[in-house]
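Contributing new records

If you add data, match the layout below exactly. Sequence lines come first and carry their own label; structure lines follow with theirs. Keep one chain per record. Anything else will be rejected by the validation script.
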Amino acid sequence: MRLIIIYLSLMMAVLSPSQQNARGWRQLAPPDTVGMWICPARGKQAMPVWGHAQGMAVGLAPMPGPRGLIRIYTPYLGLKTGDVMNFIALEPVPEGSEQRGFSELEMSALDEGRRGKRFWSSNGDSATSPLSEKYPARGVIEKINGEETLTLYVFSEPFDNGAKVYVRLRFYQSRPYEFEITTYTYDDSVDLAYFITTATMGNKARLRILYLKEGQKTSLELWSGYSDNDFTPHQVFSVDDMIRDSKGNAYFVAAPNETNYAETVYAPETTDNWRFKGIFATQYWIKKNPSKALQGLVNGRFVYWAGKAPIPGGIAYENFELKKKFRQGDRFVFGITPLSAAEFIKNLQH
């Protein structure tokens, strides 16, 4: 019942002006709870929200927030109902280029005058032609290797650089605080050097500490003199810098340097969507059986995106991602756990 109430009340979330670009989302049917899963309502215009009924969920436009992003919801962290914890952007890079496509920032070719690529959902991997955003796929509930899962596919319209991509999102019964992202190209896409799925909003929870094999790296020391109104250059870490679990899987882990967000003093000009009201959490990427070429990347911001309000406590990590040469069907895992980084890392060795 608690989770049903949480998702029903998504319709009543109070948004900042910058978030009020999702016209009509309040009129969409709220998600259903199907056993341990959250799925869009069947056969009607519905909120595109999927996830674990006791953990993390994801959403797409027209839910509140910019287009061209996968929304991440974490009600288990005590966030205000409807508040997005982070976003995942799709950023493909063609062979022979270092220029990324930007799913959030590029103009749509399908919806004239709209910024952000149109995303749509499907139960299978063949929906390369646009489908309605307001009639989302239900998702497929099935057992894989004896464990119940929820799977959906998210497709994007083509990027300006010729990339045509989609991802498969899969939730596992035993892992309520994470989901798997598998990356693909359409048959007629340009060849890709990389397909980066980046967590774009580390500033919301003010991630400042990277946990690496040989210790910690903070945003405050990496960019100690930076105070500009832009993104910093990326800092790059090799797979050898990353923490490994007992099976050899690589973990790229980040956490805040704060424990009590209630004590935060914000600049008066800080908009409400940046005022974090949840509890402490650790965010992470996992790559199973990593190659030697795997990298972890972060950049930082001193002021909040799309404004001039300084981030309380100083510069924080913003984009947080893994990077490797693209291979069709590459799998990554993104998670947000209420455990401290120390507890989370300790558990990896068991």
